[in-house]
Amino acid sequence: TSVDKGGHKHFMAKEIAEQPSVLANSLGYYIKDGQVELPDGGIDFASIDRLTMVACGTAFYACLTAKYWFEQIARMPVEIDVASEFRYREPPISKGTAALFVSQSGETADTLAALRYCEGKADKILSVVNVPESSIARESDLALPILAGAEIGVASTKAFTCQLTVLAILAVKAAQDRGHMDAAQAAEALEKIKSVPALMNQALSLGERTNDVSKLLAEARDILFLGRGPMYALAHEGALKLKEISYIHAEAYASGELKHGPIALVDKHVPVIVMAPRDALFDKTISNMQEVMARGGKVLLITDKQGAKEAGDGVWETILMPEVDPFVAPILYAIPAQLIAYHTAVAKGTDVDQPRNLAKSVTVE
Ligand code: G6P
């Protein structure tokens, strides 16, 4: 079946707008009566000691986000790597390891090779894919579909938030299997995930605001993204999205690492985008933000109303997000990251859906 832009100027805009409804599909598929239900016999994380997650590009940042979830709520040791490194470093895979591969297309050559490396070594091979008939899905013991529907824009958007959603659900299942959550606590965590589509609709209404800010960002040569915890992963995804389609040089740093080098880059020409939902590390992130401002940096703060109040004066621009539980904040904060990249690219007049030098699916090494 052919896919059209549904009245949007670009596939990317359509795919950003679609997220609340496609996410609801994944939620309906995996959550039944307040409990996680996996297809094909699922997996029992009680018999798994550690998780190795491997992917490329945006899918890798979904793994980086999920590492925080699996470690925090399921107390599960997690190793992550980009597939092109993983496959050649020949990592020892000990008994009790589940290997999990995340891929929109299910055909990325390096990710597939990494999966094949784990065959016969890992106890269980899992994949989180958008294309259920893909090579990666077929070669996994358990393939978990993200149900995002066809993604046409080269820069991944709805596949990313659907990957995050499936991984968050999987982390809840792992927490429950490993005795770190009882059924009621799992149901409560799943309710938080189920609250995301409605919050996303609110965040999507920030389109105009991000459009205004993006006109300013389009003038920049370099842009930094900062975050802590799972927001560090989102900072990476925001920087990747921006460089992919606007061709502006963008880098992500862990907020606390700023003082160890990158702060030397800060001056009044470098916008610094701070992703700061009010989570356990909010105060620390804000103090790093103040270090940037003290050096004349232009801060674009993404937080909620109370967060903006606590951050005080002197911020260059603010994007006000809905209040959200910290557990699911990474899924919601993907929206402003995507909107900023999209509007900045549009302001610069680049080819949003087909950025230069990039391919939707990289099936050669
Ligand atoms: C390409 C795409 C990216 C994508 C990456 C991994 O580089 O341009 O958007 O994140 O491949 O693709 P996959 O299909 O494995 O998720």
Automatic annotation (TrEMBL):
Instruction: Tell me the protein's name.
Output: Glutamine--fructose-6-phosphate aminotransferase [isomerizing]
Quickly give the catalysed reaction.
D-fructose 6-phosphate + L-glutamine = D-glucosamine 6-phosphate + L-glutamate
Task: Name the active site residues.
Answer: 360
Query: Is Membrane found in the keyword set?
Result: no
Relate the protein's function as given in its record. Catalyzes the first step in hexosamine metabolism, converting fructose-6P into glucosamine-6P using glutamine as a nitrogen source.
Top-level taxonomic group? Bacteria
Which residues of the whole protein does the chain here span?
A: 241 to 605 of 605
Keywords from UniProt, A to Z, are:
Aminotransferase, Cytoplasm, Glutamine amidotransferase, Repeat, Transferase
Molecular function (GO) terms for this protein are: glutamine-fructose-6-phosphate transaminase (isomerizing) activity
> What is the native source organism of this protein?
Octadecabacter dasysiphoniae
What EC number(s) does this enzyme carry?
2.6.1.16
Subcellular localization, per the record? Answer: Cytoplasm
User: What residues does the SIS domain cover?
Assistant: 41-180, 213-355
Chief subcellular location equals cytoplasm
Subunit structure as annotated in this protein's UniProt entry: Homodimer.
